[in-house]
Amino acid sequence: MTRRPSKVAAARGAAVVLALLLAAACGQKSNVRDSSAAPAAGDATAGGNPGGGPAGGSSAATGDTVATAGGAGAAAPAGASTGAAGPAAGSSSAATPGRATSPSGGTSPGASPGNSPASAAGPGSAAGRTPSSAAGASSGGAGGGGGKAAGPVPVPAPPPPGGGDRTGVTDTKIRIGIHAPITGAAPFPQNAFDKGKDVYWKMLAEKGGIFGRNVEVVFRDDQFNPSRAVQVCREMVEQEKVFVLLGAAGSEQITACARYANSMGVPYLSAGVNEDGLTGLSSYFATSQTYAQQSPVLVSYIANKLHKTKIAIVLNNTPALNETQQSVTREAQAAGLNIVRNSRIGKNASDSELLSEANALRASGAEVVYLLTSPVNFIKLATNAQAQAYSPIYMGPGITNGLNIVAEAGCPAIGSAKFLSPFPQLDVIDNLDPDYQKSYQKYNGGKGDDIGLAEWGLSKVIGSMLQAAGKDLSRQSLVAALESGREFGTNVYPLVSYSGSIRFGARSSHLLEADCSTRSYKTIAQFTNGF
Question: Element (H or E) spanning 370, and its range?
């Protein structure tokens, strides 16, 4: 029987990670302890450099769940980084002209058509499914193993008579599971993460919760490794009996867990990443734009706002990003841009590899570098380029590279880098949703940061969707509510809606720009779908 690490041992391990990261000049903090159980024999455990974003809420260092309830001292971690949905119980949100009120009660930006359709087979059900042992996980690229799950996957029990599958739901609570790449090369500060994880749920609990139920979160660190991700998702489904799974970041990890969840009839929501490998999964829903959906937005900004013509494209060398490379290449060519370099780098790129890439970019004469890699890779690449008196404009999709911790560590080398994000930055949040800073101040006694804002946004999307599923909550009623075409909006995350065939339903993103004079990101476009 594998023993969980003690708090002291976990803290020492986190300190070692921090020292290594600082030695690697990434400038980021790494105090997050691994709260998940040790991997089973035969599973890969070494994580690659995360390119992922703020993760979902973390529980205590032991990985135990924390319940959010109206009683004293009860609080649940909330996730972060994806999706859109309004508050469940009447929390106020500042209306912005041009944004329609969604049925969920929040305000949301006007939407335009053009979501990428995905073939799906209708609502997932726990009954009658025969899960595969590997859960269909994609194989990893550099730094990540394949998605093979350890041991056989048990066939799920049939739903209770007369109703849907209510695993993880009682009269007083709803249990959800979140996995995210906390350890690795791009962790975020433990203190900020802990403070922000339960702010929304505490506010909601004071308003009566979701039909009287409060949320309990189980969190696992997937170490940015698809094999590990499948393992921890299996733990949460089969041991912790969660109602729904959420993936915060990492295309390979999300694909692996989404396919496992689909085999078990468990609803799975994640940040928008790749579409290959996820299209056709009946229980999968992306809560922010996929990388491919963000390609035309970024290219239109380069062509119509920056008026640049020479572009380089640099992505992590993982099969999950092949379609992203094809998408941005196609969009750039259609816009008449000159692609002077199109390359891939390792998830665990060495210093010499990043130096070589910086040299090649400078030689190419690229004015803009489209970049999809981890914050550590980004900061090292930009630092190497600046040392050669080369300072292109860096742009890319996703959310991690638009966090303030990246600006703090990467300025001045990153210059006026611009990244899309499903949530805005702190400079505009009071106008979009004044409840965030008020609630953060109330429960934590201080001003909220952007990591807390990311967690707040995901909590709102979860709360709104669970509310839409109705009082008689089941996995089937949740999927039916999502497939109904209903629009979910919070005025923080983008408007999102789905149908029986559309699973990539986000309509817009925020565009963030680094301001190295303050070592932070600013919001330069809100709820945009093009320029």
Answer: strand 368-372
Structure tokens at 230: 């499948």
- Pair of tokens at residue 66: 């924390």
Q: Is residue 275 a contact partner of residue 323, using CB atoms and an 8 Å limit?
A: yes
Higher-scoring residue by pLDDT: 100, 495: 495
State which amino acid sits at residue 350: S
SS3 label, residue 306: helix
The per-residue DSSP string of 216-283 comes to EEEEEE-TT-HHHHHHHHHIIIIIS--SEEEE-S-HHHHHHHHHHHHHHT--EEE----STTTTT-TT
Given the candidates 3.40.50.2300, 3.20.20.140, 3.40.50.300, 3.40.50.10240, the CATH classification of the domain at 291-426+509-528 is 3.40.50.2300
Tally of CB atoms within 10 A around 392: 22
Q: Is residue 240 scored above 70 in pLDDT?
A: yes
* Block residue for tokens 């003690």: 6
Taking a C-beta distance cutoff of 8 angstroms, is the pair 49, 144 a contact? no
Q: Is the dihedral of CA 89, 95, 101, 107 positive or negative?
A: negative
Question: Is residue 489 within 8 Å of 495, Cβ to Cβ?
Answer: yes
Distance set, CA 136 to CA 227, 234, 259, 322 (Å): 11, 13, 6, 18
Tokens of 253: 């990890």
pLDDT digits (tens, 9 = 90+) for 55-106: 333 333 334 344 443 333 333 333 333 333 333 333 333 333 333 333 333 3
Q: For 354-371, how does the pLDDT look when each residue is reduced to its tens digit (9 = 90+)?
A: 999 999 999 999 999 999
| Residue-wise pLDDT tens digits, 439-475 | 999 999 999 999 889 889 988 998 999 999 999 999 9
347 pLDDT exceeds 90? no
Contact 510, 526 (CB under 8 A): yes
Q: What is the rounded distance in angstroms from the CA atom of residue 126 to the CA atom of residue 407?
A: 44
Residue 354 has which token pair? 């990043």
User: Domain 52-286, what architecture?
Assistant: 3-Layer(aba) Sandwich (3.40)
Locus of tokens 């109602």: 243
Residue 160: cis peptide before it, omega within 30 degrees of 0: no
φ/ψ region of 426 (left if φ > 0, alpha if ψ in -120 to 50, else beta) reads alpha
pLDDT of res. 16 = 35
User: What single string gives the DSSP state of each residue in 187-200?
Assistant: ---HHHHHHHTTHH
Residue 499 in tokens = 């149908």
Closest C-alpha among 509, 475, 459, 531 to residue 215: 459
Mean pLDDT of 498-523: 95
Amino acid at 395: M
